[in-house]
Design a protein that fits this description.
Elements: H1 2-8, H2 11-38, E1 40-44, E2 60-64, H3 68-109
Antiparallel strand pairs: 1-2
Helix pairs in contact: 2-3
Length: 132
């Protein structure tokens, strides 16, 4: 049991797990934040009684194109999808390396056998090749 934990929770694997998780979370956060940035814009306050019809300085106002709950939900979904895609891409590289190694082994096992020598006796249960 000790060997299992030592091999599974090695320093290299833990470091790789933390880096991959942090990278996925960061990219997901950036994608979610971009949704918020894209769905809002800044505008200058109009002349009104609040600013004495332009005598006082105007304030910048944030205008949301979507309702707040929809913007939040969209940012959450897009961030999650991007985070999972990053995790998929990172894991796919591991599997590609595994599949390439397996393909090399399969190819070496399936390599054609050299032709049998006609003068050598055939193994038991097989017919000898016809003479040329």
């Amino acid at each position: 049991m000790h060997e299992f934990f030592r091999d599974t929770l090695s320093r290299q694997k833990l470091k790789q797990l933390f880096v991959n998780t942090a990278l996925g979370n960061f990219v997901g956060y950036i994608a979610g934040s971009l949704v918020t940035v894209v769905s809002t814009y800044h505008s200058v306050e109009r002349r009104a009684l609040r600013n004495l019809f332009g005598i006082l300085p105007r304030k910048k106002v944030v205008v949301h194109l979507l309702p707040e709950w929809a913007e939040w939900l969209l940012a959450l979904l897009v961030g999650f999808m991007v985070m999972e895609y990053v995790r998929y891409v990172i894991n796919r590289k591991k599997y590609l390396v595994f599949f390439k190694a397996a393909a090399k082994i399969r190819v070496s096992r399936a390599a054609p056998q050299p032709p049998a020598d006609a003068s050598a006796p055939a193994p038991a249960g097989q017919q000898a090749p016809p003479p040329a």
